[in-house]
Amino acid sequence: MIGHIASRLGQALLASFGVLTIVFFIMRLSGDPTLLLVPEGASLEQINQLRHQLGFDRPLPIQFAAYLGDLARLDFGESLVQRAPVLGIVAERIPYTVALASGALLVAIGIGIPAGIVMAVARGTWLERALAGFVLAGQSLPTFWSGILLILLFGVTLGWLPTSGADGIASLIMPSLALGAVGMSTFARMTRIAVLDELSRDYVTAARARGLSRGQAVVGHVLRNAAVPVVTIAALEIGNLLAGAVIVETVFAWPGIGQLAIQSIQSRDFLVVQTVVLFVSLVYVATNLLADLLYALIDPRIRMGA
Amino acid sequence: MTPVLAIENLSLSIAGVPVVDGINLGVDAGEVMALVGESGCGKSITSAAVMRLLPGAVSQTAGDIRLAGESLSRLSERQMQAMRGRRLSMIFQEPQAALDPLSTIGTQIAESLRQSARAARPAVLHMLDEVGIADPARRIDQYPFELSGGMCQRVVIAAALIARPELLLADEPTTALDVTIQAQILDLLRTLARERGTAVLLITHDVGVVADIADRVAVMYAGRIAEAGPVHSIFAQPRHPYTQLLLASVPRLSDVPKSPLAVIPGRVPTPLEFGPGCRFASRCPRADAQCVAQTPPLRPLGDSDVACWHAA
Ligand SMILES: Nc1ncnc2c1ncn2[C@@H]1O[C@H](COP(=O)(O)OP(=O)(O)OP(=O)(O)O)[C@@H](O)[C@H]1O
Ligand code: SF4
Ligand SMILES: [Mg+2]
Questions:
Q1: Fewer Cβ atoms within 10 Å of its own Cβ: the N or the C terminal residue of chain A?
Q2: Taking the complete model, does pTM exceed 0.90, yes or no?
C-alpha cells in the first residue's frame, strides 16, 4: 500500500513537471512581456536593454534551468506586471477558488450522487425519466451559457442574487451552480451506471433471499460496491472543475485563480501563470492520492493487497 | 401430511411466451427432491418463483406456491420478505458471486437472523462450525476473497440454514466447484437437511448428483415435468422416453456427466417453437400423430408420475 502510494506520488510529480515544462515553453513561443512593459514610444535600444535586464534574451533552456533553480529554492519570483511577489498574488486568490470549487463540488456530489442512486433504484418509473431530463439539461448546457442564464434569471429579472463579484455566500450560489452543473450530471450518470451494475449481481439476489428488502440490500451492500467507480470519477472531476473555474470566474467576475490565470496570460505575466499551473497540478496530485486512500478504505481487497 | 413445498400448476412467461407450463411438484420435510433437466428448461426461474425473486422479464401467469400449506403467491411483499431467509432460503451456483465482496462473512450470515453482526456472533460462530469451517473465530471476520470457493459455498449454506428454514432451494450448488469439493458439499447438504428436517429442492443437470443424494427426482423437459418419482424407481425403471435416454446416456453414475443430452439426437425446442402436443415429440423415437397433436397429462404409473401417451 505504502509502496503503491509512493509510486503514484512519483508518477504524479513527474506529470506535474511535464505540464510545467510544456506551459513554460508554449507561453514563450508568442514572445515575451517586454513590449507590454516599456512606455509607449520607447526606442528599440531601450526595449533591448530592458529585455536583457529581465533575462528574456537568454536561450530558452537557460531560462528554464534558471527558473527550476529558483523553484528548487521555493522562490516563485516576482510579477513583472504587478511588481509584487508571485506567491502572494496567487495565494490571495486561492481561497476564492477553493470556495467556488467546494460549492460546485457540493452541488455536483450532493445532487448528482443521490440523483444517480434514485435513477438506478427507480429504473423504469416516471421518477427516473424526470431526473434523466434534469441530468441531461445539466450536461448539455455549456458552462458559460448556463452561467449567463442564471445571471439573467436570478440576478437581473428576479434580483435575488448579486450578478457578479465576491460578496459573501449569496454571491457564491450562482457560480457554484453554474460550475457544478456539468459535474452533477457526470456524477448522476456514473452513479446510476455503477448502482445498476451492482444491482444485477448475484450477491444482491442472495441478500434478498436472506430476507433483506431491496432498499436494505441497496444501503447495506450495493452502495459500497458502487462507490469504487464513483470515487474514480470524483478524482477526475476535480480536474474538470478547476478547468471550468476559469470560465465561471470570468463570467461572474469571481476573483479566483482562474480569473488570475486569464489576466496573467493576457499580460504575459509568465511567473504567475506558471505558479497557477503548478498549484493546479499539485491539487490534482493530492486528489488522486486521496482517491487511492479512499479505495483502500472501501475495498478490503485493495487494503490487504490481494 | 402437508408437504413443506407444494408447487401447484405453476406457469411462468417471458414477454407473453410461456416458458414454464403448469408444473406440479411437492417436497416433504427432510427430503431431498432433485429437479433435473438441461439448460434453459426453466429450473432456475421455477426456484426464483418460489422465492418470489423472479427476474424483471419473467412473470407468473398461473398457479400457486404453498409453504406448509400457506399460499406464498397471496402474501404481500413485506410478508414474503419476512419469510425469506427464515422459512425458506436459497443457495447459489457461484458461491463467490453470491457473497458481497466488501462485507465480512459474519455480517452476511447474521442478516438471515435479522440481528446485528455483534448480537448474532455466537450463533454465527456455531453455524460456521456446523458447516465444517475450521477456526470460525478467525473466519467470521474475513472477507469472501480470503476464502476458497468451497469454503464460500459453506458460508452461503450457513447463511441459508442458520435461521432453520423449512425449505432450502439449492440451484446447482456444486457446478462451479472442484470435483472433490462437490462431494463434500453435497454430503454436508444431505447431512444438515436430515438432521434438521429441512426440505431441499436441489436443482441440477447432473444425473450423478441425483443418484448421490436425492430421495425423489422430477425430470423437467422444455418447461414441463416429464416424469417424477422416487430416485430408486426411476433409476431402476425409467418410464418416460426422455428419462430413458437421459439415463442410458450416462455410462456410469460416478462419471459425473456434463451434458448427457448431447448424445440424444436433435435439440430442445425453444418456447417459441412449442406446439400443442408433447414437447419431446421432435426427438422421441416413439412419437406418433397423437403425441404431436395432444399434450400428454402427468399420470401415476407404478411409483412415479409420467407425462407420456405411450409409457407403461
Ligand atoms: N433474467 C432473465 N431474463 C430473461 N429471460 C430469462 C432470464 N432468466 C432466464 N430466462 C429464460 O428463461 C428460460 C428458463 O431459464 P432458466 O434459467 O430457468 O433455465 P435453467 O433450467 O435454470 O437452465 P440452466 O441449467 O442453464 O441454469 C430460458 O429460456 C432463459 O433464457
Ligand atoms: S408422449 Fe409421445 S412423444 Fe412424448 S414422450 Fe411419450 S411417446 Fe414420446
Ligand atoms: Mg439455472
A1: C
A2: no
